[in-house]
């Protein structure tokens, strides 16, 4: 079930990516609508991070291409934001939460210019939005995993982009923070921004996202949540993971889990 | 103690070299590339020899350019081995630096009778000769100690590099992928930094030798990191430690009648271990840092 749309904000065409001899993504062909909160689902190692990295030009594609706002990424970098997985950096780095969020303003500054008062105010606003203003001066090594994650999201907000790619932004954050972040993302999409989130919990995915991508090396599904969150597609996506399968079966039996209902 | 101009020149030169090395060393440490700095400082040897053969002089621009180029080649080679050949990064560094260093040693041995350059000079340097090695212009004017000028130029350029590219160095060190997504040339920043490391090594080897350059790049930043988690503070403390090592190292050597460069390195090492003891609470964190530095 792969739904293609007109005037997409993101277009991925025949994308194939491999690390050395190992292909990780095969023939990914998808288009994404603007103003949506979009989830990427798939088991560990499905290539979710790789898909985002390929779109962001961080890994080289063997074939195919991707376009954002119908343009090459290089022409629209200022409108695109990327939040890597939290573990991808060393949080022992000597910097405060505010320092890190200020990095989100760097691309507007250009070479040799230093961030000033305006950038600092913006960064503080962004910390406020993720409820981290009180920790602005705190060294990042002294923050909890969930707080570090929120600093990363604040840095992305400081980029003032139109499209956001976030790799597991809810990893390590508690339930109430996760809910707060989801409403923040929903506010953003309500103003026309597009937020694409790698998510590992299929149960909450139905509630959070209005568009879902299901990935397991191949693209299994891409479409409106109510159309693609089906047992059949979830089984295809999480195929080999038996325990996962039984979980889904049981949940559906208990009818606690009805993707069509909110 | 009365003012001794020779002591002043040696301490000044030593301090300037220690500051240049420390400034670069802070970023090498944070990038977990302390060993890459080590590798480059040894790998520039063939560059030094070739430049010497071409220019016939141990001084001057040819030397800096030759070594700078070999330093960049070494960086490219290390990155190639680890990214494209998928060799572990410590093995890539080891292979690159031992091969280039070996080539340099072979060149020196083969050309021993033709050139006035020996391994000892390259490895250990002799800062005690700095005051008597004068820069004399074509018209015969004595300008003062040559190596002191070299280290002043080096310090100016290193400081300028770090000042101008502070934002870029910071962001590409903390989060390389994010830096790349905002359009920063992370490769360019990396080669810039490695080029400065190569240049600093060449500029300093006559005074302190390649081995001490590495000590000054690694030890003061690692010591400072035990005391602060603020980047600007870290840089300030590294600078202070460099000056202190140079000052105390000189007098230690004076009283022990030993090598000044060696005494400077010993003082730096002493401060490191003192800091470890005073920061006993933090010992696990240091271990973590050191083990990371080894594999990087
Ligand atoms: N830098 C890399 N080098 C080699 N293989 C990698 C690299 N990054 C990821 N992989 C492999 O590619 C596959 C997909 O990884 P990834 O995109 O991180 O999956 P996900 O984010 O869905 O868990 C995995 O099998 C992983 O082991
Ligand atoms: Mg991932």
Automatic annotation (TrEMBL), chain A:
Record-linked Pfam families: ABC_tran
Keyword ATP-binding: yes
Molecular function per GO: ATP binding
Domain ABC transporter residues, every copy: 10-242
Recorded family membership: Belongs to the ABC transporter superfamily.
InterPro entries, A to Z: AAA+_ATPase (IPR003593), ABC_transporter-like_ATP-bd (IPR003439), ABC_transporter-like_CS (IPR017871), Metal_Ion_Import_ABC (IPR050153), P-loop_NTPase (IPR027417)
Protein name stated in the entry: Metal ABC transporter ATP-binding protein
Entries under CDD domains matching the protein: ABC_Metallic_Cations (cd03235)
Domain of life: Bacteria
Keywords: ATP-binding, Nucleotide-binding, Transport
UniProt keyword annotation of Transport present: yes
Segments traversing the membrane: none
From TrEMBL, chain B:
Places the protein is found: Cell membrane
Topology relative to the membrane: Multi-pass membrane protein
Pfam families noted in UniProt: ABC-3
Record field: transmembrane: 6-30, 37-55, 61-81, 93-112, 147-166, 178-201, 207-227, 234-254, 260-279
Record has Membrane as a keyword: yes
Keywords (A to Z) from UniProt: Cell membrane, Membrane, Transmembrane, Transmembrane helix, Transport
InterPro entries noted in UniProt: ABC_BtuC-like, ABC_TroCD
Record-stated family: Belongs to the ABC-3 integral membrane protein family.
Protein name (Swiss-Prot/TrEMBL): Metal ABC transporter permease
Native species: Echinicola arenosa
